[in-house]
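Me: I hope this is not a bother. Any chance you could explain this protein sequence and its structure tokens? It all follows right here:
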Amino acid sequence: MKKIPVSILILVAFALIAGALLFFQPKPAKSNATRPLANIEIITVHPEAIQLKVSSQGTALPLTESDLAIEVSGRVMTVADNFRPGGHFKKGDVLLEIDPLDYQAALAARASELAQAKLALAQEKALSQQAKADWDSIGKGEASPLTLRQPQLEYAKAAVISAQAAHTRAKADLSKTKVRAPYDGRVLEKSIDVGQLASPNASRPAARLYATEAAEVRLPISEKEAAFLSDPSVFVAPVRLSQNDRYWDGILTRIEATIDTRSRLLYAVAEVKNPYHGPTPLRRGLFVNAVIEGRILPKAYRIPRIALRDSDTIYVLSDNKTLQARKVQIVKRDPNTVIIDAGLQDGEKVATSPIAYFVENMPVNLLESE
């Protein structure tokens, strides 16, 4: 009979010992694991009247900005002291004067021609009357218009009208040698000075002016934001412009009808009256922030932005202290708040705490925050 090797006996012994240890090991006590309740903060919501506001930015520019045109030719004799970039002027102020000598001479010539035409008309009237009297005394039948000098009289009348028009034009040309401001405003830039030869050249205006009566700011807004605003023709919407710690009040005058094909935005236009005067003038070209007051929602809810889950969902606390997901209709959202006009009821409680996981009708532990 063959002997069993010692190594096999050792392995068998170890296997028996291991089996015995596994068989006789103590069994762990059974326990029912429970998930801890999530601690959440909630707010109680109530409806309120909320005025929608639209924020935007834009550049303030004058409502009226135009080129100063020269209508007659000549050498510039004088310019006003305020006819410099940044200079203020009033409507009707003489900004520059062109040498009037040629136009004074032309006016004198036209006055002489007018006087001659009037003299010729007076003479022709006398001759016409004399011709009629002569015909009445010695003529027979009906006299022709030429006999009564009617064409000559009409020609003399037309000559007076033509001379009068030429005289009026010469007088107007002389008045245009004094170039006057068309409105209250300021000089933006100028391209002419004393000694230069001025001419009616539309491609080279004498100066660029802008009116100080009002400024406009074109404010880009989306179509959705445009729906927040009232019709400017029906309701005058206030607009608050700001730059750092400076503020200007204006009104919304119109919403442009065309959508920009590049940005896909509309433009709301705000107007500020007398913006360039006072302690904080609204300088031309200043980039400003704007807040436009829009429509009023009579019954809406304002909740913190952190209470919004996904794009249109909130968690509402039920009567038995469980959370339920609720779809809501959002009118407007910004980085801090969300405005809801459908999907909530007065007095409902909305969770505002971050929730790591969510299960419908999950129980929670409340930390109320009104």
